[in-house]
User: What shape does this take?
Amino acid sequence: MSHDAAHAPLDVLILAAGLGTRMRSRTAKVLHKLGGRPLVAHVCRAAAALSPRRIYTVVGHQAAEVEQAVEEELGTEGGERFITQTEQRGTGDAVMAARDELADANSTLLVLSGDVPLIRPETLGALVQQHRTHRGHGAACTVLAVRLDDPTGYGRIVRDAENRFERIVEQKDATPEERLINEINAGIYCFETRSLFPALNQVQPANTQGEYYLTDVPGILRAGEEDVSVYLHPDAREVSGINTRVELAEFERILRVRTLRRLMLDSGVTFIDPTNSYVSPEAQIGRDTVVHPGAHIEGRTVIGEGCEIRHGARITDSRIGNGVTVKDHCLIIDSDIEDNCTVGPFAHLRMNARMDEGATVGNFVEMKKSRLGRKSKAMHLTYLGDADIGERTNIGAGTITCNYDGVNKHATLIEDDVKIGSDTMLVAPVRIGARAVTGAGSVVTKDVPPDSLVAGVPAKVKKTFHEEQKSEVRSQKSE
Ligand code: UD1
Ligand code: CA
Assistant: This one.
């Protein structure tokens, strides 16, 4: 998009103060999620891609939450971005709330609705371009319109005998003839601010809803002999707003299909059943990875090549290397799994769990804030919390790091080549030295020296290994 010095700078105003009654929700509509992100965040991202001077957001319902959603998307550097509309008296009133901030700025203002999440930056760029070049000198206002087979509910574009724009009439105020018009207002506009605010001053709530309609402004400008242009966009779906949960679900499906197609066609990922696979638009998956039905891959998860993600696994904001198998029904959140690891079935990794290359976690194992070193294993019924585990160590079935004393969390350190016997309780803080062995059922309350065998409740050192015994013990112990 051009930033000719001849043009006024571009600002964006996103209308996001409404509740969205038709959602039948206690949550403001723009906070409802599509592809795991609030609707308003999608709009922010499209707007930011135009590199405008400023992005303003009009907030009202759940203002704090909406502001947070916007800041999560745009960052906080921009400063004063939010405008509060105390009472929601219509889209015209929402823009009026920004008068103090914007009226004196000599700018082109792109007005967006917070509930139009599929809008693309290219479309917005084309709208701004037409607005600025209309009849060589630019328009006072440009309305983004589309044609719909069923225009019910939308504002209609009324044209005069010469087919020029005349005004917008809302569904509820339209005559039966006007309701036949299928060219509708998408609720996305470009205005020159010096024309916008004087016209907005003339808007009256003289309509069936008793609201201040922003949609009256283009008609007022036109009546005042100012240039109003209509940008007719070919893709109706892209610019349609979400008003109900039925539409939200439909958009979710569209976005999901788009994401899966991209992963299959461009990235070379196999989905056994794309109708039952859920992948965030922001996730990345590598070539020849196979995703089984019912898997959910969420947030900014990155999965490498040649992995197998089996039925019902949920992986959120995690990093998975190459050649990893995630078996059925695993839950992996904010975790990091290196190449050639195997996880599950029914494993739970969370809060920065980390598996180094070739490590294995089996069924009913939970890892929290813990690292399992290279080629180490924890195969059955185990809790590893606040633990750091070295290489080639085996954690026996039923092992628990007792990391919580009721007040504080404590760390467990297990060094390389350790054999933790089945049903060992490791009462943290505790350290198990390299090559040590714990007997089945031990309750370890004190540090275990390297090369020693401990057993009992509480565990005591039973013997210390000489060089030749070490290899013997290794060959005796089963996994
Ligand atoms: C609006 C248009 C309609 C258009 C349709 C396209 C008006 C009067 N009508 O209708 O012509 O066809 O969009 O989707 O503008 N908002 C506020 N404060 C308010 C009211 C609304 O911030 O006081 C925000 C809402 O949060 C929403 C946006 O403005 O993000 C649009 O409001 P909405 O009530 O959805 O307008 P529509 O009835 O869909
Ligand atoms: Ca709407």
About this structure: The pocket of calcium ion (ligand 2) is lined by residues 113, 115, 241, 243 (CB under 6 Å).
